[in-house]
Amino acid sequence: MLRNRELHTWLLFLSCVGLLSACAGLKDKGVDASTAFRIDSLRQEFVLPKTVSTLRIENEFGEINVRKMPKLSVGTITATQRFGAQAALPEINWFIEGHIATLTVRYPDKAPAHDAFDGNPGRADLAVYVPDLAHLALASNQGRIQVKRYSGSVTAKSTSGALLISARGALNLTTQSGDILAMHIAPKWTGSSHIVSQSGLVNVVIPELVTAQIDASASSTLDIQLGERFSATKATDNSTSGYMGDPSVAANRIFISGRDVHLRKLVLL
Asked: Are strands 239-244 and 230-235 parallel, antiparallel or unpaired?
């Protein structure tokens, strides 16, 4: 059984939502139960072997929200939206290959599409509770991806959903039209960070005491407020290259691109 406080909060929230939905249905006796809007939740837990260092999560039908959990397992709560009691429910697929565990959200084959869900059978928003791992790899379509204060590196890709990511490791974040809020919460990490939105707003927060080479570009507005430790070596109105800290020291690299790009420093206490 999962005993995480945030997990219980999610369950309470989802239960209340379901209860309110049911009460509304009772009041409106003219609603056809076969087409009525329904909200349901599915709670699951998966064993995570100690050999796993990377967790992949794919959900093209809604959001992905990741929270830390100390237990050596992966817990999920899926909040589903559908029309009618007989409408298809999503399936959570879990499999492990070598050091990689993969969790995917899928609807049954030939499940009927619905216009209210952009041609999908329904909507499935996913909350995932995970232990510390070296790497998270997350993929969505239009749904938001959120990761708070993760210990490892994070890769996140979405077509149009927002990416809200903070982690101690490298960040590889890509979205076509969604906005990005990215935060490095440690001054050292392994590997380069790439933070790119083709046409969205990009906000990046970087530790003040980091030693890093930074390359940033914007198609519209570039706003840099990194303090005195940042020195530009090449700059135009819409792009800059420079260093945080001593340029003679081997440094992390951060590549940033978007429509409007804003860089801020993070003061670690």
From this structure: antiparallel
Query: Which pLDDT tens digits describe the chain residue by residue (269 residues)?
Result: 444 444 444 444 444 444 344 444 434 444 455 679 999 999 999 999 999 999 999 999 999 999 988 888 999 999 999 998 889 999 999 999 999 999 999 999 889 989 889 889 999 999 999 999 999 999 999 899 999 999 999 999 999 999 999 999 999 999 999 999 999 999 999 999 999 999 999 999 999 999 999 999 999 999 999 999 999 999 898 999 999 998 888 789 999 999 999 999 988 66
- Rounded Cα–Cα distance for residues 17 and 236 (Å): 51
Cα separation, 213 vs 215, in Å, equals 7
| Helix H or strand E encompassing 16 | helix 5-27
The number of C-alpha atoms within 13 Å of 151 and in the hemisphere containing its C-beta is 10
Interatomic CA distance for residues 154 and 148, integer angstroms: 11
- Answer for the pair 238, 222: CB distance below 8 angstroms, yes or no: yes
- Residues 179, 202 contacting (CB under 8 angstroms): yes
- The pTM score is 0.85
Q: How far apart are CA 222 and CA 240, in angstroms?
A: 9
Contacts of 206 by beta carbon, 8 Å cutoff, 6+ apart: 184, 212, 214, 226, 244, 254, 263, 264, 265, 266
Site of tokens 């430790």: 229
Contact yes or no for 265/206 (Cβ under 8 A): yes
Burial annotation 177-198 (CB, 10 A radius, 16+ → b, else e):
ebbbbbbbbebebeeebbbbbe
Element (H, E) at 253: strand 252-266
